[in-house]
Amino acid sequence: MHGPRHDEIVKSLVDLLVSVLPEGAERITATGETDLGHSTSSLTVSDAGGTVTPVASPPEFDLTLIQLWDDTAAADAEPWNTYTLTVQRDGAFTLALSYVSPEG
After folding, report:
1. In terms of pLDDT, which residue wins out, 96 or 75?
2. Any bridge partners for residue 82, and if so which?
3. Which residue of 58, 76, 90, 91 has the smallest Cβ count within 10 Å?
């Protein structure tokens, strides 16, 4: 499920999220759906007290996700179409890619 540029593209996504992480927030989470030439994302930040607040996505974030999907599609006949990327302030991250059938 990893294409040849996977690590490079994921690093770009992580760097983008760290760049919009507000002061006082501990982590940022991006979730969404991606397919051929299309991506929709929702971003939230969480602080130490557990407060979760929506934030705007950087304009290049969805374009970079599309690059990751394209990279995956080059290596896998049925690439992922949903994702969750959580990034801590120190740059540590978790990325979950999954395939959800459009039928349900």
Report:
1. 96
2. 33, 98
3. 90
Pull the structure tokens for residue 101: 């059938």
How many CA within 13 A on the CB side of residue 59? 0
| Strand-pair partners of 83 | 32, 97
Nearest-angstrom CA–CA distance, 76 and 73: 5
- How many other CB atoms are found less than 10 A from the CB of residue 25? 19
Residue 2 backbone phi and psi in degrees, to 5: -110, 125
Entry pTM? 0.90
34 vs 86, higher pLDDT: 86
Is 43 in contact with 29 (CB distance < 8 Å)? yes
Phi, psi of 87 (to 5 degrees): -125, 130
Q: Which residues contact 103 (CB under 8 A, 6 or more apart)?
A: none
